[in-house]
Amino acid sequence: MTATPRPADTPFASRAQHPACPRPERPSRDRDAASRRRVPPPTKDTGTAATARDLLLLTAFPVLAALALPAAFAGGGTRRWFGGRAENQRAEAQAAKDAAAAAFYELDTAQRDLRISIETITAVDDSPAARRAVSDFDALGRRIDEVSHQYINAVDAHDLDRDDLEAAVASRARAELTAAKDELTRVKRELDRFADGLGPLLGKAETQLARLAPAVERARQALLAATNALDTVRSSGLKADDLAARLAALGPELTKLNQGAGQHGVPQTLERAERVARDAEAVRAEAERLPERAAEIDHRLVSLRTRAEALRTRSGQVEPMLSELRRRFSAACWQDLQQVPEQAAQSVAQAELKLREAQTARDEQRWPDATSLLSTVRALLNSTDEAVSAAGDRLRRLNAVQKDPQQEIDRTRFALRDAQRLAMAGRSTPDPRHARPLDDSVARLERAIVTLEGRHPDYWHFLTETEAVRATVARVVSQIRGERGSGGT
Length: 489
Hints:
Layout: H1 11-17, H2 28-36, H3 47-74, H4 85-124, H5 128-157, H6 167-197, H7 199-235, H8 241-249, H9 251-259, H10 261-264, H11 266-315, H12 318-328, H13 340-363, H14 367-403, H15 405-424, H16 432-450, H17 459-485
């Protein structure tokens, strides 16, 4: 008899006894049957019996292992791992579901981002292009709702985790989820194209929003600077009531700025901030200049008062000049000056009255009134000065022409000859546009010379005529030079 190894020495027996490698558990029905069956106690085997038992173990163990493996891999769970075609369809449907979920998330995120852009545009821009963008976005939103409902319905219609999921159901779920994903992707592309088209509007809106905070801050700082400047002026003894009133009028505007663009709109807030900053800056500048302005008004009061006194003295000298003119020259030479002494006295008196009013306004710190009154005084004194000076200038010029009229004649003829040479330069014949007024001026001068003949010549008419001739000549010379400078002939 050949000796056979003991069952305990077999590889299967040793693996069964190793604590790290537990034996596969039998199905529950095998365990119940084994518990009901009474197993006789082991007896001492003979050699033949031991050999037969070993062969039985070697044959039966793979069968038991095959029965136990599915249960072991299932972990006592509810799903079979090797279900064939149904499991493949389930996996494809799940992949389609995941792809659709990713597409849905991307579309939702893009829509949220784009909504922020649309809100930015509508907060700033109310143009037709902006309103059209809002309308197009609403239409896209309705399209997004449609494809989102399609996706949600496809997800809710199929439970891919069911144990008894059929292959046909899984295939239908995959097709519906794939179609939902394709629609979501298509709408996402439309949304991206729409977002690209919003570039100019969004850039303009973001630029205005970027200007908003600095503009509001500039307005606040300008108001603060104006307030500080006004306080400084008042501490020096100047009232500046008009500036205080202008600054107080900006208070409600500051309140609206503090309420923010959300309540009043971005464009309106920007415009308000710029206006407040501009007005406050004007108040600050005037407040800082007020001490200098007060000193300037004081200086002008003194200066104009001195000038008025001087003109009163000069206006008293007009009457003696008129007497000399009457005695030595014809009436045509002095008749237009007859009212100068009376008008000068009235103008000086009126100027002195306005000076007193300006002084009162200055004392009451009504700076605009004081400035306006001083301007009136200055205008009165200027006109009076011109009238008084005209009388003295008339006498001086008449004396000169009476003594030597040839000097005035030579001066006028020299201007005429110079203009005639310029008109003929580079030409064989002069341009009629230039020659005619020059010829007329020559004739006019000759007629003026004739008026000097006689016992009482009208020297003033002679002087006005020669001045008119020289003015005409100067105009023709200017015309010729302008045409030649521009390339004309």
